[in-house]
Amino acid sequence: MENVVSGKKTIWCNIGANQFHLPEGKPEAQVLDGVITLAYPDLSKLRERLQAAKSSLDGSKFGVKSASDGGVLVMDPWGSVFNLLRGDASVDQDSRGKQPGERSEGLAMRDLKIHVPENSNLGGIGRFYERVLGATVKDASEHSVTIQVGPSQTLTFQENSQTTIDSHVDLRNEAADDSEGHPIYLSNYGPHISMYVKDLPSSYKRADALNLAYVNPRFKRRAYTLEEAVDDCMFRCIDIVDPDHVEHGPIIKLEHEIRSVVKRDGSKYKSCPFDEIPAGCI
Predict the structure, then answer these.
(1) What is the C-alpha separation between 41 and 43, in angstroms, rounded?
(2) How many Å apart are CA 157 and CA 83, to the nearest integer?
(3) pLDDT digits (tens, 9 = 90+) for 200-256
(4) What is the edge-to-edge ordering of all strands in the sheet holding 234-240?
(5) What is the 3-class SS of the chain, one letter each residue?
(6) Which site in 37, 80, 198, 276 is 20 to 30 Å from 158, CA atoms measured?
């Protein structure tokens, strides 16, 4: 990852069209219960830098080991796991654009693996992404389901015996005076993922119809209604449910920031990394 930019106690790290937002921990760093797979054109120099970093990170959870497929498995100083693979720019890089600044050494985030409890309703997870967010199921097996969320990017949910429904959230009651009469939500300090959709209004309506729209009081942009979601070019949800069995409750809790490629007037949203607005985006 390159093109590191510091914000208000947050670091933005770019990798191709993808970006990490790394906030200061309150009180501890966010640790992903899963695996982040990143593609690089060459792993040799990366291996050297990782080995050189060991002495500086002694005493932390940092660790590096070779994987059977020729890649590198890295645990960061706080415990998140990265799977670094050799990639191909013609396959891994998103031809539609990249994050601002010089092109990063890394090509892309190839897959984000999210652990879910054993015996989870994996079919229901697939239906959530297909019916609410308009994604497609790429692959499904007895213990995992993979969602296609970009040209060469996937989101995988895999069963893990140590994971619970609440493993990915850190919910805190920080309710302030709500003079406008909006619903009061718990603040989430767990990790969240950000995704662009072609048709944000329709996705919001489908999420809202299932009572899935969520507002995280931590952030200034708070879409309580469809109109506010359109104006802010985003909305959030935190419960992944089976649209066929909403009454069963969340299969897993994982905060999503769902973004629109375009603003209300049809122009491109400023944070969208694409060079041009893809066809069909409204």
Answers:
(1) 7
(2) 16
(3) 999 999 999 999 999 999 999 999 999 999 999 999 999 999 999 999 999 999 999
(4) 192-197, 252-260, 234-240, 213-214
(5) CEEEEECCCEEEEEECCEEEEEECCCCCCCCCCEEEEEEECCCHHHHHHHHHHCCCCCCCCCEEEECCCCCEEEECCCCCEEEEEECCHHHHCCCCECCCCCCCCCCEEEEEEEEECCCCCHHHHHHHHHHCCCCEEEEECCCEEEEEEECCEEEEEEECCCCCCCCCCCEECCCCCCCCCCCCCCEECCCEEEEEECCHHHHHHHHHHCCCEECCCCCCCCCCCHHHHHHHCEEEEEEECCCCCHHHCCCEEEEEEEEECECCCCCECCCCCECCCCCCCC
(6) 198
Per-residue pLDDT tens over the stretch 111-125:
999 999 999 999 999
**What six digits make up the tokens of 168?**
């990915």
Which residue bears the tokens 């720019």? 89
Q: Which residues pair with 2 in a beta bridge?
A: 14
Q: Is the pLDDT of residue 1 over 60?
A: no
In angstroms, the CA 186 to CA 237 distance is: 12
**pLDDT score of 179:** 58
Classify residue 233 as left (phi > 0), alpha (psi -120 to 50) or beta: left
